[in-house]
């Protein structure tokens, strides 16, 4: 099994879906005439659709349209096709699909984000597999002159039990034809759950051997003939532009061919890469000084946000409106208001941002580790005033994505330099400092949670207000307008885990000149922190056990109850600890129900929280690959501890204060806790997994701190200064 740098190309027609997700006809792939021509020329491979190629040697090649960034999606989605195709997994080869969003994307866009891949493609790809199987069966029945109803399959072989005849899929490929009309299948034609051979089983992932033996191709590994390198000097504050460039010293560096003025910086082209970096340091550039970001100092902005979040006259965009909040809060027997904040966080992908571009006439090829070929196509097409159809994106493995590689900016960088050197590829690799100081950071946000309770302590009203910069206003302004100014990527609280008769989520958009983006966990990474911290505070106010309080307010959520009870059992919740605190939290983010218990200790003198163990119970619906699901939950927990305890990006007058690992603390191996995970089997629809482990870990740690000390931290990250302030009943910025 391997993944070539250059994706397999073949002709295809269009994808036709009938009745939404209940029926499908796969009408792309070879035409009937092309299949006949292939047979006549002895081409013994058969592509019944754009997702599958069957070889004469019984190899089944499956296209993977989504980005493989360590989450196992290349294996998970291919398993769906293999399951209902009844293919032999040992003979399956998986390759990255072409960047054709009309075929491999959703609604005309090809991208991997928000733990949506499996949820989006679960039934669609199973139907692709089922129809591929049906076409192979039809060809075998035709060859034998047997009724289709007498034909069956078993592990890559078509059988006619009545006569004992059989044909492997490869044996059919040489002369197979695509039936006209194509068979239309529905969910009723899919393999029953009790007959699954792959789904729900932990089969080996196809990408792991390549990453172990070093043959996996990442964007940074791209090597093309006659290749040049590019580097870009950027302004120290976002939004500034070069107004004067002195490039004499830069051009004097041996190997430098050209210096290029760009809208957002100055580019250098040459070889080797060391020469471009040396020339970058030699550039003398005068920058503009009037960008909006010059007024941005994160500590001051947070103070502004906290004032705004309390301002009841502020203009808000609303969603998740249930009942009449104003009436319910006015009639509440008791109310409680709390504020929670979260600082900027950088992505810090291990593979630096990079892309390689080749421009030949009006055709552009881009090689990049990316989460969205569509975004790269769009950015390059806009920069060059080209048709997106003239831009081909070759997607590779990703050395970390976390939402950062959903942006297409590095592909545009490479194009802007490569168009200056037609016919020669130009490879751009950002330095770590470039990466950190030009990242679309997780938004800095302030949140206010206001709840109402009746005389019996039942929740009657819930309002959650979020203030922060908008991601969608920058990337999807038309959708932002459609949602009347609400940004779900910044302010979504999620499904109401603790339903109330009246509730509302409010968003106050800010535009302060700093680009923000999606980080693993997206908005739930901090909105769930506020929800689960508030629930713990309500439990403390009621002098109730935090677990019992949650269960009492979750009676109509059996999946939530189950994971909470399971995590508590795993952790021996009622067992007293010495110098240790336990905290519990829950999330239904991404359609998966996840509960965690964190065990912590505290070094009061240093103000340092140490997470010793995390118990996690999760119901993700049908778990395609259980072992991989557990790995993703574990990865989410480790990822989430960083922004909860250590990670903080600071900005002063528009300038980023951190530039590399020396200034920006990330999670270290020595910080990692012991993690125990239990999956709860269920037949519910598939939930997202890649991000599901992130939201509950922050509040679980904060709740453990409160249980251990009787004090509360309402700020992310829980830095030593903030811990010490909380211990003294104060608050630190």
Give a description of the structure.
By secondary structure, the chain is an alpha+beta fold. The chain has three domains: about 15-215, Aldehyde oxidase/xanthine dehydrogenase, molybdopterin binding domain (Aldehyde Oxidoreductase, domain 4), CATH 3.30.365.10; about 220-290 and about 355-430, Aldehyde Oxidoreductase, domain 4 (2-Layer Sandwich), CATH 3.30.365.10; about 300-345 and about 440-725, Aldehyde Oxidoreductase, domain 4 (2-Layer Sandwich), CATH 3.30.365. It is built from 22 helices and 31 strands. The strands form eight sheets. The chain has a seven-stranded mixed beta sheet, sandwiched between helices. A six-stranded mixed beta sheet has the order 16-24-23-22-17-31, with helices on both faces. The protein starts with 13 loop residues before the first strand and ends in a 6-residue tail after the last helix.
Rough outline: globular
CA gyration radius, whole angstroms:
28 Å
Based on secondary structure, the structural category is: alpha+beta
Q: Give the low-confidence spans.
A: 1-42
- Helix % is 25-40%
Assigned CATH superfamily of the largest domain: Aldehyde oxidase/xanthine dehydrogenase, molybdopterin binding domain
Could you give the count of β-strands?
31
State the gist of this model:
The protein has 733 residues and is an alpha+beta fold.
Keywords:
single chain; 733 residues; alpha+beta; Aldehyde Oxidoreductase, domain 4; 7-stranded mixed β-sheet; 6-stranded mixed β-sheet; 22 helices; 31 strands; disordered N terminus
